[in-house]
């Protein structure tokens, strides 16, 4: 009947030396190298510290019932302007009767409390003598991220279409996207409300026009929302009315953020440890060779030999 | 080990249970598929089952694949719960829904409309396994359900026409069986979809749904839950809607026109509307402004001490200058003084009234005269309109707590008639002094230059700083360069095209040689003649100095930098006539003049910017140009470049701190610091110490 190896353990042979000795210096140097070299290699091979990280979340997007619609006509002095913006209230806007109807619907298909789509319909009355050449719609959105990096901001959705022929309808299908030029600071349980003020509710002070004012100020933000046009189709013919159907989906969005200290460590630690194991093994072999071959002076303490 | 073994066995038993159940389900489904040929056959089988079940009350049941197909109906049949339906319309699968009502939602149906027991015989029920849930089984009593006749199905979402069969609405009781056979949807309604939407009757068909089902089936065999008696979602407070939801939700906003333009009897403060007195009543003065596009479609009040620069597009008839002529004749600009605060009457005796003074200036503002209607009135002929002001400037002089003077400068020019729209520029400026705006000198930074402000220059031979601040000579204070007006080059000293600090730009314009006698010269002389004209036009022949700092007040002579040029190093221009003297070819001809300003941030403080010009060079670039005799012209390019010569900041790590540690004088008392004493005392002391040390050792 054969025997099987069930368990094994090592016998420890100790090498001892005094404080000021070559062996001590050698041991110190190799120990330091075992600690430092993995770090240096991990760091120099890039990506040791996590600069940015991202996650996906479907934000809570609601229509804030503030909007601005500018339909440019062949007479630039008389565009059709519809809207709810504080800046607009300062101006005398003529022809508001041309804004026949606006419908706003929010859809939550999966009933998770977050809107999955926004649907807006505008019906404009186009006077017979006017021809609409382009349409700009600015919608104010209430945008909230709620999970990892809480954020609450008032963002905008810009949709612009130009028409070669006099239009009678426009169908626009697009997705709302979260666009950021810097990472979210991402402090847990603290909602970032730096941009939680609507540009629509600012009263204009400068001499530029409202659209330019909104664009200039929105451009300065570091986190914004964009409308990515997927499909868009215009219907031509001057029928006296222009119907604009906007369908905006709210998909999951990538959110980039600066990782916190623990996450940095969590990322760096496996990199360091995996290299440290290799170096530990290598230096152990070197030490074993040096002390076994008596290249450095040290007392060998063998457990079964009594001194 | 025991625990692990126990767990292992438990896991095994669960696995066996699931696999066996799966097998049973498959068998059942197979059976059902085989036997369920028509409605009656199914009816019989359900009837049998129901009989066996009737003996024991059922709190919960396992729903099986057997009723998968009937689920779609069960949902719709729930709607019959307290309604009467003609007995003939009653589906044979109604019991499913009854069980749903009874056990799935765990409610008593005593009050439901089960009026007779007869339905039991005609209804069927699927394979039901009893499980007691919350010990409530005894509370539920099964009551027969008999729908009343001729009543609407109120839970049928697609039943929208009153007592008329709705097309493709399978649960509409107004539709006969015959009608329903016409509706293709009624046969293939997905049970999943029925649960999701009340409009399922319309939507439960199509590619998307069937595909989704397939996907689900793919994973159904793997860890699937075949039977589930727990509702997937439990709605906790469906009966109590949020009555405050309206306060939390976004709604259509009320329109708030917050325009405060009522006259208040108080002295002007920043941001106040400027008032005018017109025929005894008080109005505010406004100016055109763009609203949503670049057209001057809106008007906004001129606000006190708020400087404006408005640029908008306008039609000729809507130009602001016509408005100004009317306003200036009819009204006076008023200021509330202390005297008028106490007076009740508002007129020019109590208020401080100021007349408008309208000044007509050239396009570049060099020549200005008071408006004279006979001379300056705008007029149009077929091709041109003359005296049209596209740029105008309101200048309010505020001094001694009142507006002392209002000047409106109209910069007039001739405008071609055929251009429909024109760009109108309206500037509003306030001067808090009692001197004319022409006497006020603007510097371009203090002390260093600021971005966008004009570079200060001087054409004087010496005493540049004194000349700059001297108002008696109306010399140009800022560096100008060739400009393009209507495509043509305009001489540098006739333009207001300032060289603005820090702004790199390129201007192109066409130079047209006005002299006609050049043909008499030989070709090289002709080329040189044209080139000299260009040099004069662009100021290359003059010695121009540039102030190193934006505020030249403290400039010494060396701070006025001479603009150097490489024109002397340029290759010699020579020409030749081509094609029978009809064309002139000039070699090494100046076509491009480039100004290169080198500046640097000379401030000591890191955060402060103090830009100083350290060198200005003019480089000319030459090219071989062919000029036609009929059109002696060439295109010139004028470039301006500002190059930042500031060295990038280099950081050095600070050295270690210098520790000034002073010990008390008597700290080393036995060892006096005096050098003479050291020699005397330290030697024996040291000897003593060493002796003691070795003795001890």
From TrEMBL, chain A:
Membrane protein topology class: Multi-pass membrane protein
Segments traversing the membrane: 23-43, 272-291
Subcellular location(s) of the protein: Cell projection, Cilium membrane
Keyword Cell membrane carried by entry: yes
Alphabetic keyword roster: Cell membrane, Cell projection, Cilium, Glycoprotein, Membrane, Transmembrane, Transmembrane helix
InterPro entries referenced in this protein's UniProt entry, alphabetically: TMEM231
Pfam families: TM231
Biological role stated in the UniProt entry: Transmembrane component of the tectonic-like complex, a complex localized at the transition zone of primary cilia and acting as a barrier that prevents diffusion of transmembrane proteins between the cilia and plasma membranes. Required for ciliogenesis and sonic hedgehog/SHH signaling.
PANTHER family the UniProt entry points to: CHST5 PROTEIN, TRANSMEMBRANE PROTEIN 231
Entry similarity comment: Belongs to the TMEM231 family.
Entry protein name: Transmembrane protein 231
Automatic annotation (TrEMBL), chain B:
Leader peptide range in chain numbering: 1-21
Domain Tectonic-1-3: 268-431, 448-641
Keywords: Cilium biogenesis/degradation, Glycoprotein, Signal
Residue stretches making up the Tectonic-1-3 N-terminal domain: 137-234
Pfam families xrefs: DUF1619_N (PF25752), TCTN_DUF1619 (PF07773)
Family: Belongs to the tectonic family.
PANTHER family attached to this UniProt entry: TECTONIC, TECTONIC FAMILY MEMBER
Protein's UniProt name: Tectonic domain-containing protein
